[in-house]
Design a protein that fits this description.
Layout: H1 3-23, H2 30-48, H3 52-68, H4 73-80, H5 83-95, H6 104-117, H7 120-150, H8 154-169, E1 174-179, E2 182-187
Antiparallel strand pairs: 1-2
């Protein structure tokens, strides 16, 4: 999942949950409060065990309670349709070694605490921050790697460029080819490599391949 895809998915998802909060005036039923409390215990155990699959399932469950508080079936269906984006975001963060297992329970606890404080604006802000910190963290990590990439040369540098490129754009099997301090980006789809434009210094060579 690219940074732009994650940012869009989480912006929409958080906006729907914030709408749910406003629809219920920030009030949780006793039943939902209890379920969220129980969920926090389980998500803490899953995080301690580094069980990503279970963490994702429990995260989805916790946030579903937020939406259920609105008593809107239509809103719930729209929110639920974004589940795959949440899953993809988790796996992306794991692939980048950015999974904050030690903070997952605490981060969800903040949302429940805000509900208990009965401040609509505080709940909305906690939810917004809960989601948008994730693509923000990914962006910062990719920027760091981009800085490191600039210090690499030869094959190591090309491989790092290819990795950064497909993680930020979603285009895989890409190779950055450097020549005289200029580069040509070409993409070998399906083959895992590309000879297109190889050895060329014309900046336009291979431009139609990405």
């Amino acid at each position: 999942m690219t940074y732009d895809e994650m940012q869009e998915a989480y912006l929409i998802r958080s906006t729907l949950e914030i709408l749910a909060v406003r629809m219920c005036s920030g009030k949780l039923s006793k039943e939902l409060d209890t379920k969220m409390e129980q969920n926090l215990v389980e998500i803490g155990k899953a995080a301690d065990a580094r069980d990503l699959y279970q963490v994702i399932e429990l995260d989805e469950q916790f946030h579903s309670y937020v939406v259920m508080a609105s008593h809107s079936e239509k809103l719930y269906k729209v929110w639920k349709s974004l589940e795959s984006g949440n899953t993809a975001a988790y796996y992306t963060m794991r692939s980048e070694s950015l999974m904050p297992y030690e903070y997952i329970q605490q981060n969800h606890q903040k949302i429940l605490d805000a509900f208990r404080a009965k401040s609509v604006e505080e709940i909305c802000e906690k939810i917004r921050r809960h989601y948008m910190i994730v693509p923000e963290t990914l962006f910062q990590e990719l920027q760091k790697k981009k800085t490191v990439r600039g210090k690499l040369t030869g094959k190591e540098g090309r491989e790092k460029d290819a990795e950064i490129y497909w993680k930020t754009t979603g285009v895989r099997n890409s190779y950055i080819i450097f020549d005289c301090d200029r580069y040509i980006l070409s993409c070998g789809r399906g083959t895992g490599r590309s000879d297109c434009g190889k050895g060329r210094t014309d900046a336009g060579a291979g431009a139609g391949n990405y």
